[in-house]
Design goal:
alpha/beta; 43% helix
Length: 671
């Protein structure tokens, strides 16, 4: 049987249509051809419109309510309702409320020759591909996500894209039949807590909000929060963190995947964010955790860590906070078994060999007596003292979080990770840098400089080959990996203001006066910019910074440290967000944001909106909710390139300031 849930009567109306087991059997043997996938809007004034289906079809209703006739059979439909009709059936829209939005997928199904005779009787009795039925799924979002992805790939022309559409269609059918089966066998209301847990364990990679989760299980955010708190003594957000941390740990120990790839695989934007969450959760960084497990492993004779885990896994499974999209990188799936990088031990051995070689050479060239022992002389003693004095004159002692470090008085061969723009703004062009995000303010300046990998996994071997005289790093892990190669300065940038950070780096490279001048000029530029915005009547209006949209929700920046221009807009220009966000900005101590569903997005939208843009971001040009937001409708939506907005160094802040002010001045004024 297939069940049609009548929301108006608040009852389950059972429609005995066919044996669902036969339905599943026929789908298992079907050969499918996708004819077309459409995303359609039906306005309330478009009444009595007719459409004859050219093939079998599914309709997935996204928004709105309507009364539809399919071959004279009435259907009351609303959000996330599914309808199926066969070839030649006539669809008539009798009445629509508001704007009706739906997906239509047209397909053709045939049985394979090998199975046709055995299933012929079932097909003649009840052909599921020509059957008319409708129901409201208990968990609509998995079906919606797959349908949206199918529609996106259908618009592409590649053969692989079309193959992916067919793959997704089978997954969509599976999910639909699974939910039909649930409805058939369990006519009581399913437990929303069980549904939420199952949904989170399946879709932990996706961007989450409590509203989205509640919608997926037909519950309310308040009810879900209460159930998690009373029955599990936790929150939905913390439960998802548990899932992601456990998945991260398994990938960390079982594979040689990079931290960035693991982050993408578990739903975090990049390795930096995963590293912060991992350390907060386990009390130790991912790199140190992995090294610790390997060091204490009782399977030392195993050929690899992966082999050990295959025989005996030592770690049990466990389990959201809102994920700030701190960085996007469309590199795809995990390179799960890439070759391991040469170890740090090899690097240190190479350094030790170089030192021994130098010592050996020095001994060979020394004056020696007839018995082979070196004979000191006034000349060699004087030369040694002179060389020592020369070396001391060429270095300075810098106080750092790692103690006093001797650095070159005038460094010539600088390697810098992450803090690229600060060093560049001080007039030093590095010889090696971590990867530069596309669109970064300094992308052209560093296009010819050797790239060393992501800033948290830069290659020690590549850095050693550059023979640097100074290395500047942003984290404990990178310091530990590199500090024996050359003088290495750790800059704890998260604990410093921008001015403190640039001043400290200026001290490290011997450019203290230039660092002061940078901010003198920058503050003057900020004041000039504020004056221009004030004269244009813009400075006192509200601004929102957003990112995302693929899952009908947006990440709204709620911090001055999030990037995307937030530091320029909320800190230096002193502009405000809407009150609902400004309260969070005033108290935020980190890179915070909030996932907001489209239904309430208008409350979070300022008079002006900056949207972080990147390849592959959601196309919202046809989204009616997005296009009805005043700032979007009236042309005060501005895009800021992700790479430009990602960095917060003084070089990038200068360019961001110019871009943001120019964009605001060029936008239509608030009426």
């Amino acid at each position: 049987m297939i069940i049609n849930y009548n929301r108006n009567k608040k009852t389950l109306e059972l429609i005995l249509i066919m044996n669902l087991k036969d339905h599943m059997l026929l789908w298992n043997h079907a050969l499918i051809e996708i004819i077309d996938i459409r995303h359609t809007f039906q306005r309330s004034g478009d009444l009595n419109s007719h459409y004859q289906l050219p093939s079998s079809a599914f309709l997935l209703i996204i928004n709105g309510k309507a009364e539809i006739l399919i071959d004279e059979v009435p259907h009351e439909i609303s959000n996330f309702h599914i309808l199926h009709g066969g070839k030649g059936m006539n669809i008539q829209f009798l009445r629509t409320e508001e704007l009706l939005e739906y997906y239509l997928i047209l397909y053709k199904a045939n049985l394979s020759l090998a199975s046709r005779n055995n299933l012929k009787a079932i097909m003649e009795h009840n052909n599921p591909f020509n059957l008319q039925y409708g129901f409201t799924p208990t968990s609509p979002l998995p079906l919606f996500d797959k349908m949206e992805n199918m529609f996106t790939d259908w618009g592409k022309t590649g053969l692989l894209d079309r193959l992916h559409v067919k793959t997704l269609f089978y997954q969509w059918i599976y999910e639909m039949l699974r939910q039909l089966h649930t409805l058939e066998t369990q006519l009581i209301q399913p437990d929303p807590l069980d549904q939420a847990i199952r949904y989170m364990q399946t879709y932990y990679k996706e961007t989450f909000s409590l509203e989205k989760l509640a919608k997926a299980v037909n519950s309310s955010p308040r009810t879900l929060s209460r159930l998690f708190r009373t029955q599990l003594q936790t929150s939905p957000a913390q439960y998802l963190i548990n899932i992601r941390m456990e998945k991260s740990k398994i990938l960390l120990l079982n594979t040689e995947a990079s931290l960035h790839d693991i982050a993408i695989a578990v739903g975090y934007p990049d390795g930096y964010y995963l590293g912060k969450m991992f350390k907060k959760y386990y009390g130790i960084s991912p790199v140190r955790y992995k090294n610790k497990v390997i060091t204490h492993s009782s399977w030392r004779d195993m050929p690899s860590q992966g082999a050990q885990i295959d025989i005996a896994r030592t770690q049990p499974l466990r389990y959201i906070d809102y994920d700030n999209h701190y960085q996007y990188n469309g590199e795809g799936e995990l390179p799960m078994f890439r070759n391991a990088k040469p170890s740090l031990l090899l690097t240190l051995l190479l350094c030790f060999t170089i030192v021994l070689s130098a010592c050996s050479t020095g001994t060979t060239n020394s004056n020696a007596s007839s018995n082979g022992k070196p004979t000191p002389s006034a000349e060699t003693s004087t030369g040694a003292n002179t060389d020592k004095a020369a070396v001391e004159a060429q270095t300075r002692i810098i106080s750092t979080v790692k103690g006093d470090i001797a650095v070159p008085a005038s460094p010539q061969r600088v390697v810098v990770l992450y803090l690229l723009g600060d060093v560049l703004a001080l007039g030093i062009k590095p010889i090696g840098v971590s990867d530069v995000s596309e669109g970064a303010a300094f992308e052209d300046e560093l296009k010819d400089v050797q790239k060393l990998g992501t800033w948290f996994e830069a290659s020690p071997e590549a850095i050693l080959a550059l023979n640097p005289d100074l290395i500047i790093v942003p984290s404990e892990e990178t310091y530990e990996a590199l500090h024996q190669i050359a003088p290495t300065v750790l800059v704890p940038y998260e604990k410093m203001s921008t001015e403190e950070r640039v001043s400290f780096i200026g001290q490290v490279v011997g450019k203290e006066d230039q660092a002061k001048e940078l901010f003198t000029d920058f503050h003057k530029k900020v004041e000039d910019s504020k004056q221009k915005l004030q004269e244009a009547g813009i400075l006192d209006h509200t601004i929102s910074i957003m990112e995302g949209g693929k899952d009908n929700s947006m990440a709204v920046v709620a911090s001055k440290q999030f990037g995307r221009g937030s530091q320029i807009i909320y800190e230096y220009l002193g502009m405000k967000a809407p009150d609902i966000i400004q309260q969070e900005i005033d108290t935020a101590t980190g890179a915070d944001g909030e996932s907001v569903s489209f239904e309430v997005l208008g409350k979070y939208s300022g008079d002006y909106i900056f949207r972080s843009s990147y390849d592959g971001m959601a196309d919202l040009t046809q989204n009616p909710i997005w296009n009805n937001i005043p700032a979007v409708k009236e042309g005060r939506l501005m895009e800021i390139d992700f790479g430009l907005g990602y960095y917060s160094d003084i070089y990038s802040l200068n360019v961001q300031l110019d871009y943001i002010v120019e964009a605001l001045l060029a936008a239509p004024r608030v009426k």
